[in-house]
UniProtKB/TrEMBL annotation:
The keyword Cytoplasm applies. Keywords: Coiled coil, Cytoplasm, Cytoskeleton. GO terms for molecular function: lipid binding. Residues 171-198 form a coiled coil. This is BAR domain-containing protein. One of its GO terms (biological process) is plasma membrane tubulation. It comes from the Eukaryota. It is found in: Cytoplasm, Cytoskeleton. SMART domains: BAR.
Amino acid sequence: MSWVGIKKAINRAGTQVMLKTGQIEQTVDKEYEYQEKRYKTMESTSIKLQKNLRSYLESLRILTNSQINIAESLNSFYGTNTDFPKDANGDEKYKFLVQEYYHTVKQLNDSAIDNLENPYNQTVLNPVARFNSYYTEINEVIKKRNNKLLDYDAMKNKVKKLIEHPSSTDVAQYDKKLSSANEELKDLETKYIEVNNQLIEELPKLINLRISYFDPSFESFVKIQLRFFNENYHILNKLQSKLDAQTKQDYMEGKLEDRIDNVLKKMRDLDITGGLS
């Protein structure tokens, strides 16, 4: 920062203190304040939306990874016992189903997430991030407007003091000083009004554009969700139908309750159980 920039920053800091303590009359623009408040609300909301959308994709990864972890644990659990009933092909029935479940959820993780990530980034996450990237430029204009306002209020206060306390000794010098201050005040007022009006005009346009901009991303988000869960349902339903068929068959043949009773009896016979009742 140059010396001029440092000097301006110091002067503006002093002006802010005087404004807060009521030593300087502050210029208030209700219309601008209303539009800025709307803009700030939109900014915080869309940044939060971007964060949540990023978390959503990560949550799906966590979900599918958790399914794989459970499938691996089940696979190891069933794989440690060799005393399972055999089917017609001589395979361990339950171990086969668990292994099939493992391969099913691994397929979901490898295909569904990979196929989802690219369109999700392109049509949902990236457009939101691109929209949010404009806040940096807009906030710079708002900062510029606030600085111009501080300069304007400070000079307005200076002119006011000159008028309230005119010099009685050197009238010519006083008139020259007052004229110079008025010219500077007019110049600062013009610069402030220019950027202030620009924001009053353009902030509502930006806010109103948010709907038409986000609509396609919202539609894509819903479709991607539908696709992901439909693929999950389609793949898992194949396995579920096998599980249901086996369960119904065991139930119809009276094997389901007998199997549970048999396991409970064996557990009661174990010394370490202390005799379950």
